[in-house]
Specification:
The complex is a heterodimer.
Chain A lengths: L3 E10 L2 E11 L4 E5 L6 H8 L7 E6 L2 E2 L5 H7 L1 E3 L12 H13 L9 H17 L15 H13 L5 E5 L7 H18 L2 E5 L3 H7 L2 E6 L2 E7 H6 L1 H8 L3 H14 L1
Parallel strand pairs in A: 3-8, 3-9, 6-7, 7-8
Antiparallel strand pairs in A: 1-2, 1-4, 4-5, 9-10
Helix pairs in contact in A: 3-4, 3-5, 7-10
Chain B lengths: L1 H9 L6 H15 L1 H4 L7 H24 L7 H18 L3 H23 L4 H21 L1 H4 L13 E3 L2 E3 L3 H24 L1 H11 L1 H5 L5 H27 L9 H14 L6 H17 L5 H15 L3 H11 L1
Antiparallel strand pairs in B: 1-2
Helix pairs in contact in B: 4-9, 4-10, 4-12, 4-13, 4-14, 5-6, 5-7, 5-12, 6-7, 6-12, 9-10, 9-12, 10-12, 13-14, 13-16, 14-15
Classes of the chains: A alpha/beta, B mainly alpha.
Chain lengths: 263, 327
Amino acid sequence: MSLLSLRHVSRRFGALVALNDISLDIEAGELRALIGPNGAGKTTLFNLISGFFPPSDGEILFGGERIAATDPVTLVRKGIIRTFQITEIFLDLTVYENLRVAVETAMGISLRPWVSRAVRSAVDLRVQELLELVRIGGRAGRVAGELSHGDQRVVEVGMALAHAPRLLLLDEPTAGMGDEETHHMTNLIRQLNRERGITILFVEHDMNIVFGVAERITVLDNGALLAEGTAAEIAANPRVQAAYLGQGGAQARVTGSHADAAS
Amino acid sequence: MSATLARAAGAPTHTTPRTWLALGIGWALLIAVPFWIPFVGGYTDLASRVLIYALAAMGLNLLLGFTGGLSFGHAAYFGLGCYGVGLMLKYETHSTLLALLAGTLLGGAAALLLGPVAVRRRGIYFSMITIAIGQMFYFIAVRWNNLTGGEDGLTGFRRHPLHFPGLTVPLGTTNFYYFVLVFFTLGCALLWGVLQSPLGHAFVAIRENHKRMRFLGIPVARYIALSFAISGLVVALAGSLNALLDNFTSPNDLDYTLSGNLLIIAVLGGMRSFWGPFVGAIIFVLVRDYVSSLITNWMTVIGLIFVLSVLFFPLGVLGFLRRRSAQ
């Protein structure tokens, strides 16, 4: 049984068909990229899976359970955690405080108006682990709003990891990052998948990252599923090249970067 | 190594020796009020009023400054505290403490029941609903003449001496000030404790980003309703004390003008800092007392101070002083 299955899922906004009859499966432990030109429906798909809004048609199964039209609060408890295209963190709080809130929500203690010293130090320990894991400990005391864009995205991933997700959805995790930050983020994504076995679905525009990191790739175009396969299959798929990557130069770039990633 | 560094840098420093010192000095000054206040031209009841308004504004500020909910209707909970105390003392009991408890629980229960109604909407609509709910109580108090005394207000009750086994404490002006100070301290301790807890962390995070909290699995509206209830409870405690101070209450204690004044106090002092509303209450009550003895339209002066402070100290007076001392 797949961890996540979409069965004939569609989403319409009035007359606009944002997603049309999408069926796809993601297995537990996969590291899957979701690509497609702007307006292909990638973020809409994320919004459906994470419960931001319900599908117009079709069924979504998570661990075999129907979750279409389930609210995000419930989905988080079931283990679906996401980040956003525009970073959503607590800008006026420090990095430490950002992670502390996330840890407290994950431990299910957010309603408590008081806690014992033992619980307090358990929270602190978990925050320290997360600071280490995403390597932002050096900035723990900084106010999140003063950090670079890249570091803010790292904080958001750290907050998602507080919940030990069964399915992690990353919406353009490296958008707007410099080379070093991008390198850091892609390493983190690989590490989370390989060492911690977290199933990850990510949207990405940078083809170097897509072909360098993802095991399998799903391609959306104009609200429809265009192709799905391994990195090599996608790179060689003439429909993908024609519809999404364009002709000539883009093809060379894709195959080139794929070769880089494979070497 | 890096973990210990992170701990040193990242973990929010809890109360430092300096803040303990400031708290100690502050409380010593408060305890000594009846001794020094005549020498600066004040009187003890004025200090009681400052504490009561400070407590109300700090209670409101849990919702306003720390949860991000702009309520224009908190006078309702203040006034319910007032009427709860007045009616209890007039018809039911001679125990001042029992009346205080009843007033506080009446206002707190109303906030607990009505918060969930207000949080069904966000932003300006939330604020509008809080006004509507607040004014509802105002009109009930005005219309229900034979119980509340209508527009003339509720009279015919007074605070009674406290009776303990083997001890009777009369509540004259000075003793009553200490009575207020005890409950002010309890209210502050409640608010401070909540803000240091996971619940308080969640409130602040909701103020910062609803969407992120929802996607961390937090049912945001329910949490805001809870903040609303705790906030209403503290404001009701302040209202109950206010009725005991005056031995009188009127629909003015339920009116949205009072809600507005509490907001002004919180913003004037600094709604992002815990003690900000306390500073705001000192300024508000003193200016009101002094200016209203010179001219009738004292609100103009308050309004002017408010406008100037928002222009020049957007973080409030306390926020401004903090920032300057940090530089």
